[in-house]
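User: two proteins, same treatment. go.

Assistant:
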Amino acid sequence: MPDDPLAHVVAALEAERDALHARLAGLAEDMAGFFEASRDSNADDEHDPEGQTIAFERAQLSAVTEQTRRHLAEVEEALARVADGSYGRCEVCGRPIPPARLEVRPMARTCVEHAPGRR
């Protein structure tokens, strides 16, 4: 009996999902550390010499966290497409997505022709 041709894709997506969950946990710890460090401080961002730096770092951490959440959602959606049998088919035209595209971007939902930003 031949191996499941999507087994390597599923394994890679599951590994990516696990890594993203771990990264989100680390980012949450970092954010908690920012809040804990500033909890007992009366300083505000405008008057504290380090306030602007801390505010920038907090904003940057928030942006990275949101980007990681979006990437995790893409991975989970790809796993759902594998489960429902629609993985590897363009959501626009229904044709197969070329294997080279899926290798580079396993979460791809469309063929290159219908990729967002094309036209």
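Protein 2:
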Amino acid sequence: MFGLIGHSTSFEDAKRKASMLGFDHIADGDLDVWCTAPPQLVENVEVKSATGISIEGSYIDSCFVPEMLSRFKTARRKVLNAMELAQKKGINITALGGFTSIIFENFNLLQHKQIRNTSLEWERFTTGNTHTAWVICKQLEINAPRIGIDLKKATVAVIGATGDIGSAVCRWLINKTGISELLMVARQQEPLALLQKELDGGTITSLDEALPQADIVVWVASMPKTIEIDTDNLKKPCLMIDGGYPKNLDEKFQGENIYVLKGGIVEFFNDIGWNMMELAEMQNPQREMFACFAEAMILEFEKCHTNFSWGRNNISLEKMEFIGAASLKHGFSAIGLDKQPKVLTV
């Protein structure tokens, strides 16, 4: 059995979802009420692979909302309580989605293994980052040529290069794609230097320097709302892959021959029959999902019950190749520009 731990994109969305599910006592509450609300198992689903294998899974809403990010103890408690619930339900492998994964890593929740009477078994959980990194790389490889970008001549910038997903994308680009140049951008210079040494390649640069040079920009870190971008200085055509969370590139990059693609999203080959993706702003919520969620499903299909994606900078090319092959085998595909609601042009 697989599990998915997620959350709503905002407090208002969370209240609407709670009302739809009949949790009126939570839906009518203020943020303080939501801070004390326990996680809820809101949906069970059966999924059949393209190979014919059927598995069962559950979606757990952590009752976390982004407005709680400034409340460290609340955010930590929400994620750990949701993990405890998944384990108590006997779920073999559970993916941490959205901010739950970010909170787990950034707040170092590995030191909080004991939750009341439950000792969390880490092998039951995965961040899903390996599959997300592989999907982003496939989106780059497939969609760049569609808009006239030759990968052999392309300069690719990775924003957030030292993170778990960002570093994995850099490894793949250097070793698997034959791109002309890799530009690496991150806030901290020391990890960048270590990554450059590991890769024996790539150029460390700033965001302002990278954007005008890049044919393709992979955003693994979500763009701050305060940043202003002059799109006239970008190369044309330019492919922007929005691999961060929350996804907000389309608010900044609009212009002729600028293509914004939602990164780390996959489409299943068949309708699933669930409701959980309805509020996730998916173009086709019966088939599309975050790649991190799909990783838990793939691992259950493969009976690979282990914390496949765990810790920071542990994603290898071998793991990416394994999860990628399994993803295709079971009926997942990376969404492309043809699946976007529109191409952003003026």
